TrEMBL record:
This is Small ribosomal subunit biogenesis GTPase RsgA. InterPro entries: G_CP_dom (IPR030378), P-loop_NTPase (IPR027417), Ribosome_biogen_GTPase_RsgA (IPR004881), RsgA_GTPase_dom (IPR010914). One of its GO terms (cellular component) is cytoplasm. The keyword Zinc applies. Signal peptide: none annotated.
Length: 417
């Protein structure tokens, strides 16, 4: 034992059994930092060959033991923790959802969703899920927890979500799922002419409604002499709003965002095209050039991007935690909001109970506490105008169903999704 030298530190973390496999070292101290190696292997799982179809990923080369139902730890043949489920974001509340006959199933997080196929991140690395013929992939969001049959990778069922980000697109239909089980929403915008506070308010409403913590991330701070004027334009959009500035392409961005990242945490990047979401993801995930998310130039005339990213995907953050990249949204319409607007416009929501009429629109009604505050100079009229615009848009876009006594109600909202 004593004369055996552990040289794994200098070996590829994905194939520590193969000397000089590639240049990415083994990271024993921080299992969450593991990711596909330069050669494309993931903890013993062979990369898929280009052009050979997308069959289920081959079983891990190591004889992988099953997840221990109680601790959520996953071990490999040598009884080493490969990647704990807690590092993937697993929580006790999720464990409560498991039936007695489900403890033998693998727990994975949906990593990509396409029309006819889905991949998931397991404790042993990425796998392609086997879908039932009638499965509708639109019912799944990146970040979802799913139960999967260990040998076949057959998708058995999705667990209830802690949070879900969703939006209705033009033309109606069911809401489109953006991401699930997200702790923090990074609302990305740049220090340039494209910055639009009214647009950011829509993202804030989305984050509030989902129950995620919003953070405004101002990218391209390296392209302006002083980013402070841009910070000033967004700080007052919501009470206690956190705003950070960074260069999405510089390694220092990792430190700036560290308070919201870390083992078990999931963040998502949203915002217009060209603001630097994918650039930031590549920095957070410390992607090698051959595995990086594609990024694209913006037009010089109006600083708008060209919709480079076209699908949502989940990636491991180098220092622990998970980050979801999303395509740029052209127009974010608001709908299905209940608390989302009240959190965004808390100063208005707090005054509303003092209005004489319960359904006061704060436009012309006598005894309106909001109008009184505007007249007294303690509330900004522009905020009230923006609140009304979103409130009316939300009312128009949110389908109503009949309540038990035939009264109109908005869609029922439970704690679970
Ligand atoms: N100088 C500088 N350039 C940046 C920064 N962030 C992004 N860029 C550049 O801006 C362009 C757009 O970046 P992307 O990361 O592709 O933007 P995106 O938000 O992912 O865009 P979509 O995928 O189209 O939604 C690229 O040319 C990036 O190199 C930054 O902080 N500083
Ligand atoms: Mg992108
Ligand atoms: Zn009122």
């Amino acid at each position: 034992m004593g004369d055996q030298v552990d040289d794994r530190q200098s070996r590829c973390h994905a194939r520590p059994d193969v000397p000089q496999h590639c240049a990415r070292p083994f990271v024993a101290a921080d299992p969450t930092a593991r990711r596909a190696c330069i050669a494309g292997w993931w903890l013993g799982v062979q990369p898929r060959q280009k052009g050979r179809g997308n069959g289920p990923a081959p079983q891990a080369g190591l004889a992988l033991a099953r997840a221990d139902a109680q601790s959520g730890r996953v071990t490999d043949a040598t009884d080493q923790t490969v990647l704990s489920l807690a590092a993937l974001g697993w929580t006790e509340a999720l464990g409560d959802q498991l039936g007695p006959d489900e403890t033998g199933l693998d727990r994975m997080r949906v990593a990509t969703v396409h029309r006819a196929r889905m991949t998931a991140m397991s404790a042993q690395g990425p796998v392609r899920l086997l879908l039932a013929p009638q499965a509708n992939t639109a019912d799944y969001a990146v970040g979802d927890w799913v139960l999967v049959e260990p040998e076949t990778h057959r998708l058995i069922r999705r667990l209830d979500r802690n949070t879900v980000l969703q939006r209705r697109t033009e033309g109606g239909g069911a809401p489109q799922l953006i991401a699930a089980n997200v702790d923090t929403l990074f609302i990305v915008t740049s220090c340039n002419d494209d910055l639009n506070p009214a647009r950011l308010e829509r993202y804030l409403a989305l984050a509030n409604e989902a129950g995620t913590t919003p953070v405004i991330v101002l990218t391209k701070a390296d392209q302006v002499e002083d980013p402070q004027p841009f910070v000033d334009r967004v700080t007052g959009l919501q009470r206690d709003l956190q705003v950070v500035t960074l260069n999405a392409k510089a390694p220092e961005a990792v430190e700036v965002l560290a308070p919201w990242c870390g083992p078990g945490q999931t963040v998502a990047l949203v915002g217009s095209s060209g603001v630097g979401k994918s650039s930031l993801l590549n920095t957070l995930a410390d992607k090698a050039p051959d595995e990086a998310q594609a990024t694209g130039d913006i037009r010089e005339s109006d600083a708008k991007g060209r919709h480079t990213t076209t699908s949502r995907s989940l990636h491991a953050i180098a220092g622990g935690g998970w980050v979801i990249d999303t395509p740029g949204i052209r127009t974010l319409h608001v709908s299905d909001l209940s608390v989302g607007l009240d959190v965004l416009f808390a100063e208005i929501a707090e005054l509303a109970p003092d209005c004489r009429f319960r359904d006061c629109t704060h436009a012309h009604e006598p005894g309106c506490a909001v109008l009184a505050a505007v007249a007294a100079g303690t509330l900004d009229q522009a905020r009230v105008d923006r609140w009304r615009k979103l409130w009316e848009e939300n009312r128009t876009n949110t389908p109503v169903t009949s309540g038990p006594r035939g009264n109109k109600t908005t869609l029922a909202r439970g704690k679970r999704y």
